Amino acid sequence: MKLLVRNLSRSTTEQEIRILFSAHGTVTECNLVLDQLTGKSKGFAFVEMPDESEAKSAISALHESRVAKNRIRVKIAQK
């Protein structure tokens, strides 16, 4: 299941996101979206979790939680 993670701090790294979601299950892919010109985070990422129940657990645990002073939003990514 592909998840969209929004409102990330610009300083949050892809590795930090992977660790955060790995606490709730297997993460097969983690892509922090970067600005092509500056190379800096755009404040959102996509996380792929193959097990649907683990992904739903991550959503319920992490949606509206605070990460680096920002309240992140986690939902199922649109196709």
From TrEMBL:
Molecular function per GO: mRNA binding
Signal peptide positions (record): none
A Pfam family recorded for this sequence: RRM_1
This protein's UniProt keywords: RNA-binding
Xref: SUPFAM superfamilies: RNA-binding domain, RBD
Protein name in the entry: RNA-binding protein
Domain RRM span(s) in chain numbering: 1-79
Gene3D superfamilies in alphabetical order: 3.30.70.330
Top-rank taxon, per record: Bacteria
Transmembrane segments: none
Natural source organism: Thalassotalea litorea
